[in-house]
Amino acid sequence: MNYDVIIVGAGPGGIFASYELVKLNPKLKIAVFEAGNPLEKRHCPIDGKQIKRCINCPSCSIMSGFGGAGAFSDGKYNITNDFGGTLHEYIGKQQALDLMHYVDDINMQFGGQGAKLYSTAGMQFKKICIQNKLNLLDAQVRHLGTDINYIVLQNLFNFLKDKVDFYFNTQVLDIVKENNDYGIVTKDKSFNCKYVVVSVGRSGSKWMEEICKKLNINTKSNRVDIGVRVELPATIFSHITDELYESKIVYRTEKFEDDVRTFCMNPNGIVVNENTNGIITVNGHSYEDPKLKTENTNFALLVSKHFSEPFKDSNGYGESIARLSNMLGGGVILQRFGDLIRGRRSTEKRIQECTTIPTLTATPGDLSLVLPKRILDGIIEMIYALDKVAPGTANDDTLLYGVEVKFYNMEVDIDNNLETKLKGLFVIGDGSGVTHSLSHASASGVYVARQIANKVS
Ligand SMILES: Cc1cc2nc3c(=O)[nH]c(=O)nc-3n(C[C@H](O)[C@H](O)[C@H](O)COP(=O)(O)OP(=O)(O)OC[C@H]3O[C@@H](n4cnc5c(N)ncnc54)[C@H](O)[C@@H]3O)c2cc1C
Fold first, then answer.
1. I need a labelling partner for 13 at 20 to 30 A (CA). Which of 1, 75, 76, 328 fits?
2. Ligand 1 and 264: CB distance under 6 A
């Protein structure tokens, strides 16, 4: 046996699984296989000058490598069962919250001390939202910021590196069930182990699907969130972001009764490209360092699409829409809200004249040629609804980048231990379809580590 435990993927799920295993049983032989680079070698080549757009690197540094998709994220750890995943449905609400607090404590010990913890509790803004048909979801939010998040990851790696074997730039190609153990197949070599923890996140979603098919593990997929990233002067949302940092606000549209929600709010942040399986979409983050802050706030407005039988490929649907924007704009499309509602495309000239200065170089265009009417109508309705609680949201110069797609991994059939029907094979984090956030993915890693440590002892 090469290892007791092999973890596939060094995102938050994999990192916290290895951390907890090391802590609970330092004698365990543990390896982590990661398709991407070590943290210090992760660099996105887009510099805004020579390289302005995504050049489809073989391994996307934003999504892959030590720290996973979380490495250059805004480091917002939302401690809540209201969003960010459905871990509580498997392990119970209290346990899920306890684990998220546990993860928060570790982040504080490893360099995050001093980062502010925001809370919706007792907020007057909640009442104002309800009065305007908006629902503010309850949460505590620890905002590390991209820079502190990076330091926490560095410190976690330094703690783990002598206790765990890390294999970087080593994609796991296959998992083979042998008699009482598992074979982990990489390009050059195969390894075996008793327990496998698969934590491959969104970037590993296609691979995960293939593995489940091959191992006869059931999956289901029926959801994708599609929308735009909104960018506006930070002052418009400052009364909300100063108090809460990130607010998750849900609005039910009058026309279609669809839920539109704000997602990933980044006060004084920047808008960035995201490359998922070669498709360029948009995302955002912000820095804690005052020198790196911008004048703008950005957040996504997303509409959830749930599909019913016979359609199964919800991510394929989202990808097709993103591809359309890539086809028309060569990447992400940028449009002023004023142009969108006047039914005209944005042009370089109109963007140059815009009072909101974009933080991402994107192609001025027309989002109505990309987004389905139902989704676009929902977004426009939501912008007007937000304008009532944050006047100025519906200004002509509010910028919309499209498309933002939140792909949901298909849900892998796992039990309450997050274990598949194949004993010893666990699936955690965003790759399981159960979590969609840093805190839930990390908590699922701790949870599974504890299951394995119990089995071993
Ligand atoms: C720009 C951006 C900003 C974000 N901001 C936030 C935020 O502020 N708050 C929040 O809660 N969430 C945020 N998210 C989402 C968050 O990053 C994810 O929910 C979280 O990282 C999921 O953790 P994970 O460990 O499940 O997967 P990931 O972080 O995706 O890690 C999976 C790892 O597995 C590796 N991998 C995949 N397939 C294989 C394979 N076959 N073999 C070996 N390795 C493999 C990948 O390279 C990757 O490093 C953000 C995401 C992005 C992209």
1. 1
2. yes
